Amino acid sequence: MPYHRDMTREGSGDAARPADDEESGSRAERKERTRRAILDAALALAADSNLMAISLRQVAKQVGVVPTAFYRHFGSLELLGLALVDESFRSLRLMLLDVWRHAPEYTDFIDGSLPIVAQHVRENRSHYQFIARERTAGPPRVREAIGHEIELITRELATDIARSGAAEQYSSADIGLLADLIVSFVVTMAERLVEDPDGEARTLEQARTQLRMLLVGALNWRSRGTWAT
């Protein structure tokens, strides 16, 4: 008999496990859907102002959850903002680095990258709007996070420039300055595309000319100590 009772308990546990796994999976899916809804609601509510102008209760009401449910996903609006920064920059960094690393010549970089950036802005407009607003008017930690992400992109580009043949004429400091110039230019162009989506063709044409001017100067630059004697 004792042996029989043990087998019953084992059998019951094994039979219940798939149901437990299914319930756990559905809970995880519901949690992710709610988290996604909160992020989307925050983007929508901040579209005409900024993150500091909206409240936790507004976001919760938009999603259709109680404020306590918000805290199960994000401890504060600032933490929600940090999640949006991470999400906004993740695909942007990968896209830019892929373009830069597959452009063997500067002209390929210019002609190849600008249309891709424009397409990325069109497909992720709400995220670019968020970055453009929050990097100057957002909560301090959010502004700091945006600055950090832009700095990461700049360092990654500087590393790629250093590995290229063009690096011979630049000092390490000047490579960093060149990368900073290019990234700042791309960020400004993206902000213009967000502000004036109907003027995309004009913005791209102006950006192409400006970037060529920048890179012509870069190609003829020699850092101190690299001049031929």
Automatic annotation (TrEMBL):
Binding region for DNA = 55-74
Spans traversing the lipid bilayer: none
Q: Where is this region: Disordered?
A: 1-32
Question: Which stretches make up the HTH tetR-type domain?
Answer: 32-92
**Signal peptide interval:** none
- In what ranges is there compositional bias, type Basic and acidic residues? 1-12
Q: Which GO terms describe its molecular function?
A: DNA binding
Decide whether keyword Ion transport is in the record. Answer: no
InterPro entries tied to this protein: DesT_TetR_C, Homeodomain-like_sf, HTH_TetR, HTH_transcr_repressor_FabR
Origin superkingdom: Bacteria
Q: Does the keyword Transcription regulation apply?
A: yes
Q: Which UniProt keywords apply?
A: DNA-binding, Transcription, Transcription regulation
Q: What is this protein called?
A: DNA-binding transcriptional regulator, AcrR family
State the organism of origin: Nocardioides exalbidus
